[in-house]
Structures are given as C-alpha cells and as structure tokens.
Specification:
Pfam families: Solute_trans_a. By secondary structure, the protein is mostly helical. It has eleven helices and two strands; from the N terminus they run ααααααββααααα. It has a two-stranded antiparallel ribbon with strand order 1-2.
C-alpha cells in the first residue's frame, strides 16, 4: 500500500474532528451540487410516496407489502446516501441501513415472483412436472452439466431459505461491523488476516452469493410465464440496484483504500471515496426510481389458472346439475 502523504493524514484527523462540519466550507459550485442532489433525493421520495398511494388503491392486498418493499429500495438508498453526503461521520450507519434494507428486498423479490404466479400452491401446480435449472449465476453458471432439480414443496422451501438467510444474517454481520468500528477494531484499510474486516467481508460475500443464486434460479423458471407482467425489466432494475449499491461501492472503496482516489483535506482518501460514492448513488437511484414507477405503476392481468385447476372447477360445477337431473327422474 502506498504510504499516505502528510496532508492525507492531516485530512483524516480533521475529518474525525470536524465530522459534520466538513461540508460547511463548500464553494458556490459545491453548494449547487449539494442542492441538486438533495432535490433529487426529495423527488425520489415523493415519487415513491405517490407509488405507495397507487399500490394501496389499485393492487390486491396480498401483493401490497412486497411491491412497497421492492419499490422502496432505490429511494431508501438515495436517502441514506444523501445523509452520508451531508454528514460524513454517519457513513458507517447509513451503509448499515442501506445494506440491511436491500438484503430484505432480495428475499422480497423472490417472493414477488412466486406471488405473481398465483402463490405457492398455484406455482407448484403450474410446474409440478418441471425442474429448476440450477446451472445459473452467480454460483454455477459455468456448470452446464448439472442436472435439474425437480420442483417440489421442499425444493421451493430451500430457495426461499437461501434468500431468507441473507435477510437474517446480513444485519447481524453489519451490526457486528458497526460495533467493532465504534471501538476502533474495524477498518476497511486493514485487510490483514488479523483484522476483522477481511473475515467479515468474506462471510458477507459468501452469504450474498448464496442469496443471489435462488433468485437467478427462480427467474430462469418464470421469465417466460411472467413475460406478460414485465418480469424481465423488473429483474433488470433489481440487478442494477444490486450492482450499483454493492459492486460499484466496493470498487470505489478499494480505490480509496489504495489511495488511487486522492485525499482532499479535510477529507482523507477513504472519506472522499465514500463521499463520491454517495453522490453517484443519489443520481443513479433517482433514475432507477423514475424507471421503477413506469414499470410497477400499472395493473397487469392475472395469469390463467393451470389446466388441472380449471378441470376441477368444471367438475364441481357439473355435479349439482347431475344431482338435480336424478331427482327429477325419480319424481
């Protein structure tokens, strides 16, 4: 690692001492940028509120909660990024909030695909003779020879468990990171085996891959069936948020830790990296919020029930007619 120049060390100290006040020395261009980004965050939240009102008025109650969670991903990330931009010392807490929220959204997206198929029972009826294609990313995209897994209640349970574990354990690891950070034992710049950051990051990466795999498997199974409900654009938006919030942020943090992103007193290199990441995320999540409104703010026709359900319903309707006919003959 390149040693930090004296002004970067001084910038890091000033960043810790000044904290919230590091944004007070902005010039006119900086204040204009902050105002624009804050306005974008405000508009994103207003669009989301309008979307929530529409969902409560037009969408069936069984889908409301899931759709609200998914649509809230971009506005929540934009809001936490805006807070982190104005108050740099809150970065650890804002990142904690955004990461935990999106971990829940990953599970909700899987549940949404099942709900759009009519729920778990109808999903199993539709694909009772089918197989899950498990040779998908991010785990087994190169293992094309893997056999399919039969679609049963048990295999569906394992898919849901794969995303649920991430929603459960991600907050635990992020809370542990925050506690260690407040005690001075957690730093992304210390990636030695003796440090806590490298181990926590590895565990979170493993949990993330395990959680993304079931979503990819389910999408491959239902993308043709749910094409009428625009599942491909919805999945693309989900992937964009995932890449921008995780991969992009990780790349910027690595560049900042290696001091490829130079310091700018009173901000050290890591602080400036987080500062840049927050500003970029606000603009990106603003655009994602607007696109999500176009994709989700419409009522799609429900899928036709499976053939077996239609036949059962037809038999039930015909049975009373036969009984009446018998009684008439008896009279």
């Amino acid at each position: 690692m390149v040693p930090a120049p004296p002004n970067c060390v001084l910038g890091g100290k000033l960043h810790k001492e000044l904290g919230e006040s590091c944004c007070t020395g902005l010039d006119l261009a900086g204040r204009f940028l902050f105002a624009i980004l804050t306005l974008m965050t405000l508009i994103a939240n207003l669009v989301f509120i309008e979307e929530v009102v529409y969902i409560y008025r037009k969408i069936h109650s069984s889908k409301r909660s899931i759709l609200i969670w998914i649509n809230a991903a971009a506005p929540v990330i934009a809001t936490t990024s805006c807070i982190g931009m104005w108050i740099p010392r809150s970065t650890m807490f804002t990142d904690f909030t955004a990461s935990v929220f999106f971990a829940i959204v990953i599970h909700k997206f899987l549940m949404m695909m099942i709900k759009e198929c009519g729920g778990q029972k109808l999903f199993l009826k539709r694909f009772e003779n089918g197989h899950f294609k498990i040779s998908t990313g991010p785990c087994c995209c190169c293992c094309l020879c893997l056999p399919g897994v039969r679609i049963t209640r048990r295999s569906l349970f394992w898919l849901k468990l794969g995303t649920f574990q991430f929603a459960l354990f991600r907050p635990v690891f992020m809370f542990l990171s925050t506690v260690l950070w407040t005690n001075g034992n957690y730093s992304l710049s210390n990636l030695s085996p003796k440090g806590a950051a490298i181990w926590i990051s590895c565990f979170i990466a493993i949990l993330t891959i395990i959680a993304l795999w079931p979503v990819g498997i389910m999408f491959q199974q239902v993308r043709v069936l749910l094409n009428c409900k625009k599942i491909i654009p919805k999945f693309a938006l989900y992937q964009f948020i995932l890449i921008l919030n995780h991969l992009q942020t990780a790349i910027i943090n690595i560049l900042a830790v290696q001091r490829i992103i130079p310091c700018a007193p009173p901000l050290s290199s890591p602080a400036r990296g987080a500062y840049i990441s927050h500003q970029i995320l606000i603009m990106e999540m603003f655009l994602v919020t607007l696109i999500s409104r176009v994709v989700y703010r419409r009522r799609y026709d429900e899928l036709d029930p499976p053939a077996c359900i239609t036949e059962e319903a037809g038999v039930k309707k015909q049975t009373p007619i036969l009984n009446v006919a018998v009684r008439e003959d008896g009279l």
